[in-house]
Every structure is written in structure tokens, then in C-alpha cells.
């Protein structure tokens, strides 16, 4: 029995998308239960023998500041969903709500694992090998030290080991060249630390990788600071959207090209499936004493279902224990810095 | 009469690609002259009334360190080409050689413009509006202060104004959110400086932009540090290559899909032209007392020709004077930092 707590109010669409996704998820996973968190009147239409409504009176909107989410909306669906994990009522929480608020609440309610200064956001991206490259951090931490990058590498390895059959996934350090001497000082020191961790058996470190290696699939995991990761992710989304738009435009240019599009419909459909970002929805918030998954805010029913599926897989494959075991093993290298002033500043209540 | 100095030995392919590109360029530009720089025996096959060989005995390889390029190969084709600009023999130099060496040599030979601490690499990328977004820095500077980002914004504005009809191009500051409070400390201070520059009439500052805005074409120019810019560029190259590969695979899956590909050939060809990265080849090295353009190392004849074309346009449109005039105008905001230890370290000879 795997139990997930779902923030049904979060995201751009709220219950209109989350509820149908929950129903489909329950139908596909006979051993799963869901705690549907939100305003009871908004969830009243839903009924399923393996689902239970957990009431929450407030909703964190996509525009709410972290401060509002933390201090003014203490009974938000997002917070109550995370609380279910803290209280042992659920093994993982899933939300499509605003990332900053989710990270801050998760960190405040669940706390970080010993040895981890900062939680990170990790998500798989499709690669040319037909597999996925897991990239972290994707935006939780704008300034990182080499210690943080090492922590990301250890946590990312635990994530990929839990979600795939790859017990020793390869780790690449995102840089602007493959040579050891490339990059800024933090990156160079991170390279040294990652090599030490590899020597100690904590990691399968490949070395430096460049931006193009993410989609090439050179390594299973790519580690970077949250600023760089966020820019890389969003730049990719922008490019994919532009290319998709160009392809649509070319095929709808005139009646002849429209007929051509019909003729090649199966080919285009198959292509579209392969590059469909929605399949990869569901980012893990790693480094917390509980599992939290973040869906894209604009997720549709299919995409939100993918995020539920990822949370379910993580819970069943003991991601939490794996992260903690790997962190414990790497402990001699994790010198635990003095904490994170930027995130700390938002946590006191 | 516009004269370009071409490093004919640089890049992955050397004269095999550069010479045919030069011939085509000369045929298309009746008022242009070229100085073909390289080993005379490698260039002996070429003859054209508006081309002249300038001998250089050495070649900087793609793997040569900056130090080797600077100190051991003093008669390299790359250096001699830049020297032609310094000596007033040519208005711009073009090379497909290794970026680090080209930047270091250009900086050493030409020196930076007053008010500029660090030269930057700027290149146009296609956007969904059917125009181009100019991004800088793309990798010359791994650590940047807010002053550097301001300098990039001013130089990028001069570049776009020189190359397009847009006299007041819009500038976006690459960040992980649109709100002013987003980003790290350098980015926040850079935002303040850019707003001051806009108030003083030095810039048309749009505000923060995110990764997806590059390909959306939200602004004409996107400013970022060289680490982030390089990762964004290479991530895009990797994604474009993956998507192209998937499309090819789908259309060559079986005899039926191959026939389908033939049927839609004109549509696919038109699509391919629109996303063809080669059209955008030719990055400007900005902030030097002379014009230098960098071609992609793997450029083919068409792509190298595009880089020649960009250098030619820049020279004809007085890019150098425009950069200097804009820098002079923005001078009160450019407080000139103490110089760049990292680049300085490689320049003494």
C-alpha cells in the first residue's frame, strides 16, 4: 500500500486537472491510496474507495510570495499535503503549486536530512539515447558552493538509482568545457570534491560535461547550480516550443501542406510523443526528511498523472532511505557548511 | 572598399572550408577584398583579383592552450590575421579557430576600448518572431560583476543597432524569474544598474527575462555571464540536434515513412532552413579596439560564409565607432573596475 498526499488546489488549473488525473492514477495503481488535500467544496464531486479528502481552507496561488505562503496561509492545501508526509499519513506529497512556496514550506515542515544544507530540485529530461538525463539543481539555489554541488551529486545518484535499474549512475559536472582547468573557482573545486567522492566509492563521476551533453545523454545525472540549471531548462523549453511552432506553421502553410500533414500524421504523432515534455513531468525535491514532488504549474491531466506516477515510484523504491544511506556513506566528504542564509531568512515563523 | 583578414587555417577543416567560402564571398561582394592569412603552400591553389595571401608559418590548433597560442606560436595565422586589423590593413578579422586563443590574442594585440574591462562574445540566435535574439556573453567571462553585465548590455546594443535597422534595441537581463527580487546578488545589482542606464538614455532596458525568452524573442538582446550564456547556447545546440535526429529517425523508420518523407520534402526543407543554426554563424568579439568575428569551429562552407558576411556588415556599418560612442555616452555609469585578474594572467608575454 502506497499513500500519496495530493495538493489538489495547486497549479494553473487546480481540481479541474488534478481530480481527473487522480482518478486515472487510482485506476492504474490498485495498491495506491490518495489523500486529496483541498477545499472540501471543490473536491466534493470526487469519490473513490481508495481516496479520502483531507480538508484545507486556503490555497497558495501561483503569484503568492514565499512569505505569504509561509506566514499568512497556514492552512493551505500545499502545506497540509506536506504535513501528511511529516505525520506519516502519506509517503510522498505532490503539488503543482508555486515552486518557491513549495520548497520553503517543505523545508520548514519536513527539515533537511543530516549532511544536507540545501534541498535541490531534480528532474529528468529526455535524451538522444532514448533515456533520461536527470538534472539538478533546477532553481532552488541561486548561489552554490562546491559542497552543495557534491550534495546534489550524491542525492541525484540516489534518485536515479531508485527510479531506474542503474545502481551506479554516472554523474557529470556542468561546465563550459571538458578540461579540468575550465570554469570558475567553485566549479574547479567541485570537480576536485567529486573526484574524491568517486575515489571513496560514493559516486560514479564522469567528469565535466557541457550543455549539449544534457540532451546527448552523456551521463545519467548532470549537476549544476540552480541559476544555471533553471536557465538551461527554460531555454530548452523555449527552443522546443519554437521548433514545434515552426513545424506546425510549415505544415499549415497552404492546403497542399495541410494534406501532406495528414499523410504523415503517424510519423509526426510518433515524433511528438518522443519530444513530449509532459512525459517527464514530476521534479523531486531532494534532501528533505520526506518525499515531495513538484508538477509543472501548467500541467494537464496527463502530465499531472506522470508526476503522481513518479512520486509513487519513488515511495515504493524507498527513495528517502536511499538518499539518507548515500548521504551517510559520503559523510566524511560532506563538511556541512554554516547553513544557508538566503533560505533560512524565510523559514522562521 | 571593405577589407577582411581571414584566418584560413583555423577551425576543424581549415583551408578546405575557408577557401571555397572566401571565393563565394568575393563573388557576392564586389567591393570587398580579403587578406588570406595562412601557410602559403596551403593557400597556393587560391587565386582571385581581390584576394591576397598574407603568410603565417604557424597554426593554432583547436586543442592548443591559450598559453601555447600566446607564447609559443607568435606567427600563427590567427595572430597575424588580428594583426592586420591592428595595423589598419583590414577592418575586421575572421577566424574559426579555438575561442580561448582567439579571445586572448585579440585582447593582447588590439587591447580593450576605454571603459571596458572585458571583451564579450555575442551571437544572434533565431527566435520565434522570425528575427534574431543577440545573446552575450557566450563564454569569454566565467565570473561577472554587475558592471560587466552593464558593459555587455551597452556593447550588445551597439552591435544590434549596427547590424539591423533597430536603433534602440531592447535589452533583457537573463534571470530565473521576471520579478526584480529574483536572482543572486550580482543579478539584482545589475538590474539596478541597467535601470539607471535606461533612465540616462543609454539603453532600452526591458527588465528581467528567463531562458525561454531567448527563443521567444521577448527582447532583441539578452545579457548574462559567460558561464550561463555558454551553457544556454550549448544546451540549445544539444536539444536542436536531438530533435532533428528524432525527426530523421521517424521519417526513415520503414519504406512507408520514407515515401512520406519524400512527399513532404518541401515542407521539411523549409522547416530545416528556418531552424538552421548555420545561418547564425559568426559571433562578434566586442569591446576591443578592432573588429574580430569568431566562426564555429565545425563550420562548413555555407556557415563560414555567414561569418564572413557578418564581419563585412559590421565593418561597413561602423560597429567599432558605434561601440565606442555608446561606451563614451554611458561612461558616467561605467566605473571601470580594477581589471580582470583571470584574463590579465594570460596576457603578459
TrEMBL record, chains A, B:
Its main location: cytoplasm. It is found in: Cytoplasm. It holds the Pfam family FA_synthesis. Its EC number is 2.3.1.274. It is an enzyme of class 2 (transferase). Catalyzes the reversible formation of acyl-phosphate (acyl-PO(4)) from acyl-[acyl-carrier-protein] (acyl-ACP). This enzyme utilizes acyl-ACP as fatty acyl donor, but not acyl-CoA. This is Phosphate acyltransferase. It comes from Ramlibacter algicola.
